[in-house]
C-alpha cells in the first residue's frame, strides 16, 4: 500500500470517528442516532417508549381506564360535574419515560427535551387541528414561581405548537393573580377550592375568539378549569385544552 493510500485511509478513519462524535445524539438518552432522517432527534429505543394514548380514557377529563383499546367514554365524575372546556386532547399517561422527561424539562429548560415534548404536544393537538382556532394560550405561572424556575414550560411548549400550527401565542394575557401551593401537595378538595378565581384575563382581545389552552400535566383538572373559566368570562367562545400527560 502506498504512502498516499495509508494517509488516505487514516483520514477516512478519523473522519468516520468524527462523524460519530459529531453525530446526532438522542435528545433524551444521549446515544448516537446512527441512521436517521433529518428531523429525527430521538433514538428508536426512546421513541418506542413514547406512544400516544389511543383510547381507554374519559373524553372530558382524560381519566385513564385499564384497557387502552376500549373506547372513549365519560367517567363517573364527569357525569356529575362540568368542566368548562369544549374539547380536550392529551398525549399519554404521566408515567415512565414521559414523566421522566417532563420532570427533567421542568427543572432544566433543556432545549432538546423541549423540542421532544413540543413534538409530542403537536401530535396530541392534531386531533383538534381541523378547528379554526385563533390563539394559543399557556397556563400561566405566578410571577413568584416564574422567578424561582426561570421559565414557564407551558409557554415554551406553546411556542413550538404555535410555530407548527401557524397560530399566535399570547403569553401574557392570561395571568395567575394569587400564589398557590403546588397542587400535588394538596388534598383534592383543597385543590378545587384553592384555584377559584386565581386566574384573570388582561385586555379584551379574546372576545368571541377560539383558543387552545396548553399545559404540561393535568392532575385533577382544577388548574385547567380555572384558566378555562377565566377565558370564558373574558368572552372566549370556545376553549380547547391540550396537555402532554394525565396524572394517574
Ligand atoms: Zn434515546
Ligand atoms: Zn372524566
Keywords:
binds zinc ion, 248 residues, Rossmann fold, five-stranded parallel sheet, 9 helices, two-stranded antiparallel sheet, alpha/beta
SSE topology:
Elements lengths: L2 H20 L21 H5 L27 H5 L6 E7 L2 H11 L4 H15 L9 E4 L4 H7 L3 H13 L2 E2 L4 E3 L11 H7 L4 E3 L8 E9 L3 H12 L4 E9 L2
Parallel strand pairs: 1-7, 2-3, 2-6, 6-7
Antiparallel strand pairs: 4-5
Helix pairs in contact: 4-5, 5-7
The site of one zinc ion has 8 residues, from helix 2.
Descriptive account of the structure:
By secondary structure, the protein is α/β, with parallel strands linked by helices. 38% of the residues lie in helices and 15% in strands. The protein has one domain (49-246): Rossmann fold, CATH 3.40.50.2020. It has a 5-stranded parallel β-sheet, sandwiched between helices. Strands 4-5 form a two-stranded antiparallel sheet. Helix 4 crosses helix 5 and helix 5 crosses helix 7. The longest helix is centred in the N-terminal third of the chain and has 20 residues, at 3-22. It is globular and about 80 Å long. It starts with a helix and ends with a strand. The structure holds zinc ion (2 copies). One zinc ion is lined by residues 26, 28-29, 31, 42-43, 45-46.
Amino acid at each position: 500500500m502506498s504512502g498516499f493510500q495509508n494517509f488516505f485511509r487514516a483520514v477516512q478513519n478519523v473522519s468516520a470517528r468524527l462523524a460519530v462524535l459529531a453525530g446526532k445524539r438522542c435528545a433524551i438518552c444521549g446515544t448516537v442516532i446512527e441512521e436517521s432522517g433529518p428531523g429525527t432527534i430521538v433514538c428508536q429505543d426512546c421513541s418506542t417508549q413514547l406512544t400516544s394514548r389511543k383510547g381507554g380514557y374519559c373524553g372530558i377529563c382524560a381519566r385513564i381506564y385499564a384497557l387502552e383499546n376500549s373506547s372513549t367514554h365519560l367517567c363517573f365524575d364527569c357525569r356529575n360535574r362540568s368542566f368548562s372546556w369544549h374539547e380536550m386532547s392529551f398525549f399519554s399517561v404521566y408515567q415512565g419515560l414521559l414523566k421522566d422527561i417532563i420532570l427533567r424539562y421542568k427543572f432544566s429548560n433543556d432545549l432538546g427535551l423541549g423540542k421532544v415534548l413540543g413534538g409530542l404536544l403537536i401530535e396530541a393537538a392534531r386531533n383538534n387541528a381541523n378547528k379554526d382556532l385563533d390563539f394559543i394560550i399557556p397556563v400561566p405561572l405566578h410571577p413568584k414561581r416564574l422567578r424561582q424556575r426561570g421559565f414557564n414550560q407551558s409557554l415554551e411548549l406553546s411556542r413550538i405548537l404555535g410555530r407548527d400550527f401557524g397560530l399566535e401565542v399570547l403569553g401574557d394575557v392570561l395571568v395567575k393573580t394569587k400564589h398557590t401551593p403546588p397542587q400535588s401537595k394538596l388534598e383534592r378538595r383543597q385543590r378545587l377550592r384553592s384555584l377559584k378565581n386565581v386566574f384573570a384575563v388582561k385586555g379584551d382581545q379574546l372576545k368571541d375568539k377560539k383558543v387552545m389552552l396548553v399545559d404540561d400535566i393535568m392532575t385533577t383538572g382544577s388548574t385547567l378549569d380555572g384558566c378555562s373559566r377565566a377565558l370564558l368570562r373574558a368572552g372566549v367562545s370556545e376553549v380547547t385544552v391540550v396537555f402532554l400527560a394525565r396524572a394517574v
